[in-house]
Amino acid sequence: ASGAYLRLINRWKLEECHPSGCLIDLCLQMGIIMVLKQTWNNFMELGYPLIQNWWTRRRLRREHGQKAKDGFPQWERDYNLQPMNVYGLFDEYLEMILQFGFTTIFVAAFPLAPLLALLNNIIEIRLDAYKFVTQWRRPLPSQAKDIGIWYGILEGIGILSVITNAFVIAVTSDFIPRLVYAYKYGPCAGQGRAGQRCMMGYVNASLSVFRVADFEKKSEPTTNGSEMFGDAVKFCRYRDYREPPVSADPYSYTLQFWHVLAARLAFIIVFEHLVFAIKTLIAYLIPDLPKDLRDRMRREKYLIQEMMYEAELERLQKEKNERKRRKERNGHHEEWP
Questions:
Q1: CB 112 within 8 A of CB 27
Q2: Which of 117, 197, 253, 267 has the fewest CB within 10 Å, making it most exposed?
Q3: At a CB cut-off of 8 Å and minimum separation 6, what does 70 contact?
Q4: Range ranked top by mean pLDDT from 10-19, 58-67, 209-218
Q5: Model's pTM, two decimal places?
């Protein structure tokens, strides 16, 4: 219906975005996540073992005296530190994955996120080093070929972020409707060029007309505006591409709306293909392994094969000598029955 709001169970009106768009809300949330939440996480990561170790030292002083800890051997001092959580490394990876996701998926709404992520990671490297060396027991080492499933998760987030940012730029930015107007509807329509003069009348073309009398009963304005403008306000303008109320199909989408929508979808396809092409090119130009490391790995493989070949040759030589000696012994016994 014309002038109808989105309502829950046809009763409560849903809170909608400000006319300037929803990105300001997302920007504020990203600022809170990237500044306050990361600062609090770093504080808790270091503060929790610090408090636990302080409590342990306090208990030891109460049980063994003030200077008892100085007489402990090093292994016992290390044992009194906090054990590393079973999922300690998992939590560290998860923190980086969440940070990477927020930073890349919503970077169009909060362009300062990568810088804040870099500063946080520089600080966290030093805090983690201090925590591993002074607050935690030495963890048991284990071999790992790579970071495992986390690499696939990072790849998936990277692909999702490109698509998401393409949609955010296409839907929220104003340059696509401006281009459509300049080349199709403005003074320069059909001329194959666009300049500053070609944008004359764009604001008027981007606003539709709404008749105040068409408001639904629950949303009627409390005043008709006569005390402010002198006369009652009968029409108002809003950002959209819809037919006027006097047309045969009032408030339906105009042809310009579909042109703008098609241009947005075309931009999304071109943008994500271009970004993925550049990403593939960079991945091809920068190998996963440096050339000198790859050569060293090949030489190591060659040396191992050579050692295995020499060991096999030595084993065969020993077997041959053993058979020869056995044969000589058997022949000697035949000569002396």
A1: no
A2: 197
A3: none
A4: 209-218
A5: 0.70
